[in-house]
Amino acid sequence: MLAKTGGGKVIFLLIIFILFFPSVESIGLGGMKLSPIMYVPGNSIVNHYYIIDTSMPVAITVGGSFGNYVNVTPAINNEFDFIINFPEKPIPSGTYSLSLNVAEVAAEGDNTINSLTSVSKQFIVEVYSMDKLIIASLSAPSVNENGTIHFAVDLQSITYSDIDSVGAKIIISNLNNVTLAEVNTNRISLPALGHETITASFNTTGLRPAEYFARAYIDYDGKQKRSDASFRIGNMDLILLNYTKYLEQGFSTFQVKVFNNWGNPLRNVYAKFTLNDDILRSLLQTPSINLEPWQEGILEGIVKVDIPAGEHKGIIQLVYEGEQKEEPIQFTVKEVIPVAVEKVKDDLELIKKNMIIQVMTVVMILLIILIIFLFKMTYNKYNQIKNE
Amino acid sequence: MKMINISNKTIAILLVVVMIITISGTLISINRLVHFSESDWLTGAAVNTTTGTATITVLTITQITNRVPTINFGTGYVNETNGTDVCPYCQMDTITGISPGNVSCCALFNNVTAGFLLENTGTENMSVNFSCVGSCNASTFINGSLSVHLFQFKMTNGSDALNRSGDSVNDTSGSCSSGGGWNYTDWSNVSNAGSYLCGGNTTNYFFDKASASDAAIFDLRVRIPPDARTNIQQTANFTFSGNSIG
Question: What string of H, E and C letters represents the secondary structure of chain B?
Fold first, then answer.
């Protein structure tokens, strides 16, 4: 029983709580993403799910054309397992559906129009055929000049039949589509739904540093597949990709974007930025950085721009591993808009005035306190003398 | 000599005032100085970094929330002869409440101005549909003259709704835009079978998950003729289902 004095307050707070407590219907279902699911005869998949943000009883149901192969464990603390047991028997190939539904269960209500929420996760089950089919992907890593490139073709079987023999011919061409060479990979057998890699090596001696193109023709038990990749033959070089083309008068950030065209790290990489109008004048030397193989990087620094607005010529000198190269550039200097500086000055003036007013106010109040204190002392002394 | 006796308490209060003025003044000045940070007061900073390894598993959440779970038009009657006016019906909807010009006809009913506010509160885009159990058409929910009674619904983007209170973040754009907009943006009859509200089937995952475009309102409209069945409370239970890829 509520105490007589506090009971009223508690009831009042309860009413406020009930009135303002957000009344919502919500249901959520969380779990690892499964779809699309590959059908493997006799295989089992278990996925754990969490039912979230509902305060009502729920019903869990499974649907779809693959629903017969699914079991759901009872929900304990709003968590349950979703278990797919694929049958051993062959199933016609195709794409099948599967769904998992969690729905709030209706409760008796006084309202004329009520609502409930439910959520479903929809899965696709891919059933492959006995017809032989693969997914193939060619990878071609970039190499240094005169190096050997190791091509790799990843093979994923999407059939329930074994593939007796699979291999590939790789044709190398330049960007003008002129064939330069061809190599053959090893041949292997590929088990049903298996994953394997076939490889081939190619010595790039005689090819100059540039971008190249490779195409793999994969043949397997009388069928063919194709996969493409591009690669780079590199040398110890730092390539200028981009730079800051517009600078503002005063202090401005100048950036140089570069690319390490080498299959090894480049150490102590930096840039020098020089004005090259009528006279040569050094404007900036950036801090140095290190670049990993085939990595892009940005060299930057603050440059003092005290030259007239307009178009200017310059030189970017790229320095790396003790080597250096020069790239002529053009850039534009823009006038600074003075409004911002004026605003800062105005604000500083205002702060100065505010501080003076503040100090004067404090001094005045302190003076008042001092005067009151002195008066009080005098008054106390006067009273003391009078009493004596 | 007569003097006003000023207590130590008064002096202490004055000293506190001085302190407040000093501290607040300093804070105001610092605040103004901080505003200058937009003018790049800090031009460079050195950092020291180290590396570590962390693992995380992120779940996909399919979640639908109805911020307005009940609609209760209450108990009332059609005030058929209201003075010299004759009321052919009482019409109410959850957008404007009791229809303007029809207020005196709807006696004692609640003036409801909030429809079901649906929000995609998960991490996945969804398809969304509804179904209804109970008295889910005008004949069973309202009854009375066939030519008059209505039990209808319509969909509105959260960003376009007159009343979207409850949306966790007020929407600024359409929540079913990738599906060409919500279906049933005009008043349509409620039915037990229900329908897809965004997109045309379960795998049309167009109900957006982004917080500024993840809400929609399912509004209801009822029109009650004077000869509607009386003394029996009719109920309609709506279920809103969100579906995402699993």
Answer: CCCCCCCHHHHHHHHHHHHHHHHHHHHHHHHHHHHHHHHCCCCCCCCCCCCCCCCCCCCEEEEEEECCCEECCCCCEECCEECCEECCCEEEECCCEECCCCHHHEECCCCCCCCEEEEECCCCCEEEEEEEEECCCHHHHCCCCCCCCEEEEEEEEHHHCCCCCCCCCCCCCCCCHHHCCCCCCCCEECCCCCEEEECCCCCCCCECCCHHHCEEEEEEEEEECCCCCCCCCCCEEEEEEEEEEC
